[in-house]
Amino acid sequence: KGMMATIGKNKAVAMSGRLRISGFIAWLAWGFIHIAYLVHHRNKLVVMISWLFQYCTGTRGARLINHPLDDESPEGVEK
């Protein structure tokens, strides 16, 4: 179908066949396509509200990968 990538806030690149766009328009297209491929309508609404809030306030969402602690925790860390 094509390729898209975000490069930062308000910046992206997109290519599909002969169509090549960049900048703010590509960034908006990336967002709309990303949301369109979410499965449930509730998920789409939650993501849109979250993104809008983060965009307007300038906050960043948590992008963490959590691993359960092993039996041996580092010193000073409680389970």
Features:
79 residues, alpha+beta
Q: Brief overview, please?
A:
The chain has two helices and three strands. With 79 residues, it is an alpha+beta fold. Strand 2 and strand 3 form a beta hairpin.
Structure description:
- This protein has two helices and three strands; from the N terminus they run βββαα.
- The model has no long low-confidence stretch (mean pLDDT 83).
- A three-stranded antiparallel sheet has the order 1-2-3, covered by helices on one side.
- It starts with a strand and ends in a 22-residue tail after the last helix.
- The protein has helices at 24-36, 41-57, and strands at 3-8, 11-16, 19-22.
- With 79 residues, it is of the alpha+beta class.
- The radius of gyration is 18 Å and the shape is globular.
Instruction: List how many beta strands DSSP finds.
Output: 3
Taking the sheet with the most strands, its summary is:
3 strands, antiparallel
SSE class: alpha+beta
The whole-angstrom Rg is 18 Å
Uncertain stretches: none
> Quaternary arrangement of the chains shown?
single chain
Largest beta sheet: what is the strand line-up?
Answer: 1-2-3
List strands and helices in order, with pairings.
Layout: E1 3-8, E2 11-16, E3 19-22, H1 24-36, H2 41-57
Antiparallel strand pairs: 1-2, 2-3
